[in-house]
Amino acid sequence: MDKxxxxxxxxxxxxxxxxxxxxxxxxxxxxxxxxxxxxPDLNWVGFYTVQGEELLLGPFQGRPACxxxxxxxxxxxxxxxxxxxxxxxxxxxxxxxxxxxxxTNSEIVVPVRVNGEIWGVLDIDSPExxxxxETDKLFLEKAVETFVKNTQF
Length: 153
Fold this sequence. Notes:
The chain has 153 residues and is of the alpha+beta class. 37% of the residues lie in helices and 27% in strands.
């Protein structure tokens, strides 16, 4: 199964799983689990939510992570500040990368927008350099839209 087919099979699972549940913590937890166990070559999937001048760790799958990310630092804040998905093929080439897990070599961060405002980010890490591409970006943005539609904030 190629990457596009994999995502096309995962999106309905995400939608079905979130349908009928509106709690943000519950939905973040299950959403993270579906992606972590459904996509290959990942070592971390989770959420950070905007809390004033910081991003605060939310539900995730993977090793323990940085709990608070100071404004303006790292890939997560780059996505939150720009409002755009950030794909980093090699985190070691990203100025200001925050290394919560030394095994991470590539990363994608998708902003979570609620009522036009950045509410948080979906952060996904991989031990493989170049793991994420435009296909990941497209489908993960669709998955985040599904998360937002099914969650009460």
